[in-house]
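Convert to structure. Protein one:
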Amino acid sequence: MVAAQKPITGSAISERLPCWRAVLLAKLIAPTQPPRKVWKHTPRGWDSRARGGKYPKAKEAMLAYTNISECPCCLVQASVKKHARLNCISHLLTMIPYQDLTPDTVELPEREETDYQRPSTDAYHFVPLIYGSKYKDN
Protein backbone atom coordinates (compact mmCIF):
# COMPACT_ATOMS: atom_id res chain seq x y z
CA MET A 1 0.00 0.00 0.00
CA VAL A 2 1.40 3.39 -0.96
CA ALA A 3 1.74 5.75 2.02
CA ALA A 4 -0.17 8.56 0.28
CA GLN A 5 -3.29 6.42 -0.25
CA LYS A 6 -6.16 6.83 2.12
CA PRO A 7 -7.27 3.49 3.63
CA ILE A 8 -10.63 2.22 2.40
CA THR A 9 -13.02 1.49 5.23
CA GLY A 10 -15.75 -1.15 5.32
CA SER A 11 -18.60 1.31 4.70
CA ALA A 12 -16.90 2.79 1.62
CA ILE A 13 -16.42 -0.72 0.25
CA SER A 14 -20.04 -1.78 0.73
CA GLU A 15 -21.38 1.38 -0.91
CA ARG A 16 -19.53 0.84 -4.18
CA LEU A 17 -19.25 -2.91 -4.75
CA PRO A 18 -21.52 -5.94 -4.85
CA CYS A 19 -21.59 -7.85 -1.58
CA TRP A 20 -19.20 -10.69 -2.48
CA ARG A 21 -16.62 -8.34 -3.98
CA ALA A 22 -16.87 -6.07 -0.94
CA VAL A 23 -16.09 -9.02 1.32
CA LEU A 24 -13.10 -10.06 -0.78
CA LEU A 25 -11.75 -6.53 -0.89
CA ALA A 26 -12.25 -6.11 2.85
CA LYS A 27 -10.25 -9.31 3.45
CA LEU A 28 -7.49 -8.05 1.19
CA ILE A 29 -7.33 -4.59 2.73
CA ALA A 30 -7.95 -5.50 6.38
CA PRO A 31 -4.43 -6.83 7.06
CA THR A 32 -2.92 -3.52 5.90
CA GLN A 33 -4.77 -1.48 8.50
CA PRO A 34 -2.92 -2.66 11.63
CA PRO A 35 0.83 -2.43 10.90
CA ARG A 36 1.51 -5.82 12.54
CA LYS A 37 -0.42 -7.61 9.75
CA VAL A 38 1.29 -6.06 6.72
CA TRP A 39 3.47 -9.18 6.41
CA LYS A 40 0.40 -11.13 5.22
CA HIS A 41 0.47 -9.38 1.85
CA THR A 42 2.54 -10.59 -1.05
CA PRO A 43 3.15 -8.99 -4.42
CA ARG A 44 1.19 -11.87 -5.95
CA GLY A 45 -1.88 -10.96 -3.88
CA TRP A 46 -1.83 -7.37 -5.12
CA ASP A 47 -1.23 -8.54 -8.72
CA SER A 48 -4.17 -10.91 -8.56
CA ARG A 49 -6.35 -8.05 -7.30
CA ALA A 50 -5.20 -5.90 -10.24
CA ARG A 51 -6.07 -8.71 -12.67
CA GLY A 52 -9.34 -9.51 -10.90
CA GLY A 53 -11.49 -8.70 -13.92
CA LYS A 54 -9.84 -11.45 -15.95
CA TYR A 55 -10.77 -14.24 -13.57
CA PRO A 56 -14.53 -14.33 -14.36
CA LYS A 57 -13.74 -14.41 -18.09
CA ALA A 58 -11.29 -17.27 -17.57
CA LYS A 59 -13.84 -19.17 -15.48
CA GLU A 60 -16.49 -18.80 -18.19
CA ALA A 61 -14.03 -19.95 -20.88
CA MET A 62 -13.05 -22.95 -18.78
CA LEU A 63 -16.70 -23.92 -18.23
CA ALA A 64 -17.45 -23.53 -21.94
CA TYR A 65 -14.74 -26.09 -22.82
CA THR A 66 -15.14 -28.52 -19.92
CA ASN A 67 -18.90 -28.63 -19.38
CA ILE A 68 -19.82 -31.54 -21.65
CA SER A 69 -22.77 -33.92 -21.54
CA GLU A 70 -20.58 -36.88 -20.49
CA CYS A 71 -19.19 -34.94 -17.55
CA PRO A 72 -21.23 -31.85 -16.68
CA CYS A 73 -19.79 -29.19 -14.39
CA CYS A 74 -22.01 -28.30 -11.46
CA LEU A 75 -21.52 -24.96 -9.72
CA VAL A 76 -22.28 -24.62 -6.03
CA GLN A 77 -23.83 -21.50 -4.60
CA ALA A 78 -21.83 -21.23 -1.41
CA SER A 79 -22.93 -18.10 0.42
CA VAL A 80 -23.71 -20.30 3.42
CA LYS A 81 -21.12 -23.08 3.63
CA LYS A 82 -23.32 -25.46 5.63
CA HIS A 83 -26.11 -25.18 3.06
CA ALA A 84 -23.64 -25.59 0.21
CA ARG A 85 -22.29 -28.82 1.68
CA LEU A 86 -25.78 -30.20 2.27
CA ASN A 87 -26.83 -29.24 -1.26
CA CYS A 88 -23.76 -31.04 -2.67
CA ILE A 89 -24.50 -34.17 -0.67
CA SER A 90 -28.15 -34.10 -1.73
CA HIS A 91 -27.19 -33.61 -5.37
CA LEU A 92 -24.66 -36.46 -5.28
CA LEU A 93 -27.22 -38.78 -3.71
CA THR A 94 -29.72 -38.00 -6.48
CA MET A 95 -27.08 -39.04 -9.04
CA ILE A 96 -26.85 -42.56 -7.58
CA PRO A 97 -29.49 -45.02 -8.87
CA TYR A 98 -31.59 -46.06 -5.90
CA GLN A 99 -33.95 -48.94 -5.38
CA ASP A 100 -35.81 -49.69 -2.19
CA LEU A 101 -33.88 -52.33 -0.25
CA THR A 102 -35.97 -52.32 2.89
CA PRO A 103 -35.83 -55.89 4.26
CA ASP A 104 -38.93 -57.90 5.02
CA THR A 105 -40.02 -57.88 8.63
CA VAL A 106 -38.64 -60.73 10.69
CA GLU A 107 -40.59 -62.32 13.51
CA LEU A 108 -38.36 -63.31 16.39
CA PRO A 109 -39.14 -66.44 18.34
CA GLU A 110 -39.91 -66.20 22.02
CA ARG A 111 -36.84 -66.21 24.22
CA GLU A 112 -36.17 -69.19 26.47
CA GLU A 113 -35.99 -68.54 30.17
CA THR A 114 -32.77 -69.82 31.80
CA ASP A 115 -31.30 -69.73 35.28
CA TYR A 116 -28.13 -67.91 34.07
CA GLN A 117 -26.85 -65.21 36.41
CA ARG A 118 -24.44 -62.62 35.02
CA PRO A 119 -21.20 -62.48 37.01
CA SER A 120 -19.93 -59.33 38.70
CA THR A 121 -18.11 -56.91 36.37
CA ASP A 122 -15.57 -55.87 39.01
CA ALA A 123 -12.83 -57.98 37.41
CA TYR A 124 -13.24 -56.35 33.98
CA HIS A 125 -11.33 -53.33 32.69
CA PHE A 126 -13.46 -50.51 31.31
CA VAL A 127 -12.69 -47.33 29.37
CA PRO A 128 -13.11 -44.35 31.73
CA LEU A 129 -16.46 -42.58 31.41
CA ILE A 130 -15.52 -39.00 30.60
CA TYR A 131 -18.69 -38.21 28.64
CA GLY A 132 -22.11 -39.50 29.59
CA SER A 133 -22.74 -42.13 32.21
CA LYS A 134 -22.95 -45.86 32.44
CA TYR A 135 -26.72 -45.68 32.02
CA LYS A 136 -28.20 -44.88 28.63
CA ASP A 137 -30.77 -42.26 29.73
CA ASN A 138 -28.43 -40.08 31.81
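Protein two, convert as well:
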Amino acid sequence: MTGSIKGLLVRASCIGQFDLVYTAGAYDYLPDGLAVLLTKRMLELVKPGGEFLFANFSTEVIPAGYMETFMNWSLIFRDEAQMRKIARAALGDGDEMDIFFGENRHIVYARIRCGDRPDCRCPSQTAADFKTRAVSGLGFRRILTASTLSCACRI
Protein backbone atom coordinates (compact mmCIF):
# COMPACT_ATOMS: atom_id res chain seq x y z
CA MET A 1 0.00 0.00 0.00
CA THR A 2 1.35 3.41 -0.86
CA GLY A 3 0.08 6.61 0.61
CA SER A 4 0.88 9.74 2.52
CA ILE A 5 -0.17 11.60 5.62
CA LYS A 6 -2.17 13.93 3.40
CA GLY A 7 -3.91 10.92 1.84
CA LEU A 8 -4.81 9.63 5.29
CA LEU A 9 -6.14 13.00 6.40
CA VAL A 10 -8.35 13.43 3.31
CA ARG A 11 -9.40 9.77 3.46
CA ALA A 12 -8.06 8.97 0.00
CA SER A 13 -8.48 5.29 0.86
CA CYS A 14 -10.05 3.37 3.69
CA ILE A 15 -8.49 0.18 4.93
CA GLY A 16 -10.94 -0.70 7.69
CA GLN A 17 -10.41 -0.80 11.43
CA PHE A 18 -7.77 -2.62 13.44
CA ASP A 19 -6.94 -3.75 16.95
CA LEU A 20 -3.56 -2.04 16.78
CA VAL A 21 -2.38 0.97 14.80
CA TYR A 22 1.11 2.33 15.34
CA THR A 23 3.38 4.86 13.76
CA ALA A 24 7.05 5.67 14.19
CA GLY A 25 9.06 8.21 12.25
CA ALA A 26 6.20 10.50 11.28
CA TYR A 27 5.40 12.65 14.31
CA ASP A 28 8.99 13.88 14.50
CA TYR A 29 8.26 16.04 11.44
CA LEU A 30 4.75 17.26 12.27
CA PRO A 31 3.87 20.51 14.04
CA ASP A 32 1.44 20.06 16.93
CA GLY A 33 -1.72 20.99 15.02
CA LEU A 34 -1.04 18.47 12.27
CA ALA A 35 -0.01 15.86 14.84
CA VAL A 36 -3.41 16.25 16.55
CA LEU A 37 -5.25 15.93 13.23
CA LEU A 38 -3.30 12.80 12.31
CA THR A 39 -3.94 11.30 15.75
CA LYS A 40 -7.69 11.87 15.40
CA ARG A 41 -7.63 10.22 11.97
CA MET A 42 -5.58 7.27 13.21
CA LEU A 43 -8.05 6.75 16.06
CA GLU A 44 -10.78 6.31 13.44
CA LEU A 45 -8.85 3.24 12.25
CA VAL A 46 -8.84 1.63 15.71
CA LYS A 47 -11.58 -0.77 16.76
CA PRO A 48 -13.23 -0.23 20.15
CA GLY A 49 -10.91 -1.75 22.74
CA GLY A 50 -7.95 -1.47 20.36
CA GLU A 51 -4.87 0.69 20.71
CA PHE A 52 -3.05 3.43 18.83
CA LEU A 53 0.64 3.87 19.58
CA PHE A 54 2.75 6.70 18.23
CA ALA A 55 6.38 7.56 18.86
CA ASN A 56 8.51 10.69 18.74
CA PHE A 57 12.17 11.41 19.45
CA SER A 58 12.31 12.86 22.95
CA THR A 59 13.96 16.07 24.07
CA GLU A 60 16.39 13.86 26.00
CA VAL A 61 18.23 12.75 22.86
CA ILE A 62 21.85 13.63 23.58
CA PRO A 63 23.19 13.65 19.99
CA ALA A 64 20.43 15.98 18.72
CA GLY A 65 22.91 18.72 17.77
CA TYR A 66 25.05 16.22 15.88
CA MET A 67 21.99 14.87 14.08
CA GLU A 68 20.99 18.34 12.89
CA THR A 69 24.47 19.69 12.13
CA PHE A 70 26.27 16.77 10.52
CA MET A 71 23.43 14.59 9.31
CA ASN A 72 21.09 17.39 8.19
CA TRP A 73 18.37 15.58 10.13
CA SER A 74 16.07 18.23 11.60
CA LEU A 75 13.36 16.81 13.81
CA ILE A 76 10.71 18.10 16.16
CA PHE A 77 11.69 16.72 19.57
CA ARG A 78 8.94 16.34 22.17
CA ASP A 79 8.83 15.76 25.89
CA GLU A 80 6.26 13.84 27.91
CA ALA A 81 4.02 16.90 28.41
CA GLN A 82 3.96 17.71 24.69
CA MET A 83 3.03 14.13 23.79
CA ARG A 84 0.31 14.16 26.44
CA LYS A 85 -1.08 17.40 24.97
CA ILE A 86 -1.30 15.89 21.47
CA ALA A 87 -2.90 12.68 22.72
CA ARG A 88 -5.34 14.48 25.02
CA ALA A 89 -6.52 16.76 22.19
CA ALA A 90 -7.52 13.69 20.15
CA LEU A 91 -9.17 11.60 22.89
CA GLY A 92 -12.78 10.53 22.53
CA ASP A 93 -15.23 9.52 25.23
CA GLY A 94 -14.05 6.40 27.00
CA ASP A 95 -10.53 6.56 25.58
CA GLU A 96 -7.58 6.10 27.92
CA MET A 97 -3.97 7.12 27.37
CA ASP A 98 -0.54 6.75 28.83
CA ILE A 99 2.82 8.26 27.96
CA PHE A 100 6.09 6.41 28.45
CA PHE A 101 9.72 6.38 27.35
CA GLY A 102 11.80 3.73 25.65
CA GLU A 103 14.63 2.16 27.61
CA ASN A 104 17.23 4.86 26.82
CA ARG A 105 14.64 7.70 26.99
CA HIS A 106 15.45 8.79 23.42
CA ILE A 107 11.93 7.88 22.25
CA VAL A 108 8.72 8.95 23.96
CA TYR A 109 5.53 7.02 23.23
CA ALA A 110 1.85 7.82 23.52
CA ARG A 111 -0.57 4.91 23.73
CA ILE A 112 -4.30 5.44 23.43
CA ARG A 113 -6.71 2.62 24.22
CA CYS A 114 -9.98 3.29 22.44
CA GLY A 115 -13.41 3.18 23.97
CA ASP A 116 -16.55 3.04 21.82
CA ARG A 117 -16.26 5.02 18.61
CA PRO A 118 -17.99 5.25 15.25
CA ASP A 119 -17.07 2.73 12.58
CA CYS A 120 -14.52 3.68 9.91
CA ARG A 121 -16.15 5.94 7.33
CA CYS A 122 -15.97 3.41 4.48
CA PRO A 123 -16.49 -0.05 5.97
CA SER A 124 -16.93 -1.78 2.60
CA GLN A 125 -13.15 -1.93 2.08
CA THR A 126 -11.42 -4.16 4.62
CA ALA A 127 -7.95 -5.19 5.60
CA ALA A 128 -8.44 -8.36 3.55
CA ASP A 129 -7.69 -6.21 0.50
CA PHE A 130 -4.09 -5.87 1.59
CA LYS A 131 -1.04 -8.08 2.10
CA THR A 132 -1.23 -10.44 5.06
CA ARG A 133 1.72 -11.90 6.91
CA ALA A 134 2.22 -13.66 10.22
CA VAL A 135 3.70 -11.75 13.12
CA SER A 136 4.96 -14.42 15.48
CA GLY A 137 4.70 -13.92 19.20
CA LEU A 138 2.66 -10.73 19.06
CA GLY A 139 -0.81 -12.27 18.80
CA PHE A 140 -1.60 -10.58 15.51
CA ARG A 141 -2.49 -12.35 12.28
CA ARG A 142 -2.50 -9.41 9.91
CA ILE A 143 -0.18 -6.44 9.80
CA LEU A 144 -0.34 -3.63 7.29
CA THR A 145 2.59 -1.35 6.70
CA ALA A 146 2.34 1.91 4.82
CA SER A 147 5.56 3.89 5.07
CA THR A 148 5.66 4.86 8.74
CA LEU A 149 2.13 3.66 9.55
CA SER A 150 1.32 0.10 10.49
CA CYS A 151 -1.97 -1.56 11.38
CA ALA A 152 -2.55 -5.04 12.72
CA CYS A 153 -5.56 -7.26 13.40
CA ARG A 154 -5.60 -9.54 16.46
CA ILE A 155 -5.87 -13.28 15.94
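Residues 32-44 form the longest helix (13 residues). The radius of gyration is 16 Å.
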